[in-house]
Specification:
- Strand 1 and strand 2 form a beta hairpin.
- This protein is α/β, with parallel strands linked by helices and about 210 residues long.
- The chain is built from seven helices and six strands.
- Helices cover about 35% and strands about 15% of the residues.
- It is elongated.
- It has two domains: about 150 residues, 3-Layer(aba) Sandwich (Ribosomal Protein L4, Chain: A), CATH 3.40.1370; about 50 residues, no CATH class.
- The protein has a six-stranded mixed beta sheet with strand order 2-1-3-6-4-5.
Length: about 210
């Protein structure tokens, strides 16, 4: 089992913790991680592209000229798609679905690979606990500076903690989540991964 140092909130090493091999010491599967990142980014996309059809373009309520006798082609509305300024035919309608699904086993493999990659890179910091009595950004900055976490940090808790979340949300590059919402993109997009001891147990329970 890989061993990493165990710290307290004051940045002092108080021991070591063994991480489970089944999650933090697997063979890194880059293809699975790549697919998980693509799926995550695709699932964040919103279908914002939208064009107006002939029923949505304003104007054109009157027939531009009579049906016969003018020598010109017949038309019923100046908002027809063949007219300049008319509606768009087969344009994007704002309902496109970018969602991607991954098999459960592949998603778990990607998470385990990402966590193992962080262990191999020496980028995991484990805390005995992380609590805040009141939301205070300055206190969180002090904790992160003592742990020498770097600029981009993902803090993983065992369960949502409002005071910790509010203390970290205004710090650039710092993101807070809990074990149940952990994803490959957030893990790989950090300099260091800060886990509480309870979060490690929760991750083991979720991914076992």
């Amino acid at each position: 089992m890989p061993k990493v140092a165990l710290y307290n909130q004051q940045g002092e090493q108080i021991g070591e913790i063994e991480l489970p091999d089944a999650i933090f010491a697997v063979t890194v599967n880059e293809a699975a991680m790549h697919q998980a990142v693509l799926a995550y980014l695709a699932n964040q996309r919103l279908a914002t592209a939208k064009t107006k059809t002939r029923t949505e373009v304003s104007g054109g309520g009157r027939k531009p000229w009579r049906q016969k006798g003018t020598g010109r082609a017949r038309h019923g509305s100046i908002r027809s798609p063949i007219w300049r300024g008319g509606g768009i035919t087969f344009g994007p309608d704002g309902r496109r679905n970018y969602k991607q699904k991954m098999p459960k086993k592949l998603r778990r493999l990607a998470l385990k690979s990402a966590l193992t990659a962080k262990v191999n890179a020496g980028s995991i910091i484990v805390l005995d606990s992380l609590t805040m009595d009141v939301p205070k950004t300055k206190a969180m900055v002090e904790v992160l500076n003592k742990l020498q976490t770097g600029r981009k940090v993902l803090i993983v808790l065992d369960s949502p903690q409002e005071n910790v979340y509010k203390s970290a949300r205004n710090i650039p590059g710092v993101k807070t989540t809990h074990a149940g919402q952990l994803n490959v993109y957030d893990i790989l997009n950090t300099d260091n991964l800060v886990l509480t001891q309870d979060a490690v147990s929760q991750i083991e329970e979720v991914l076992a």
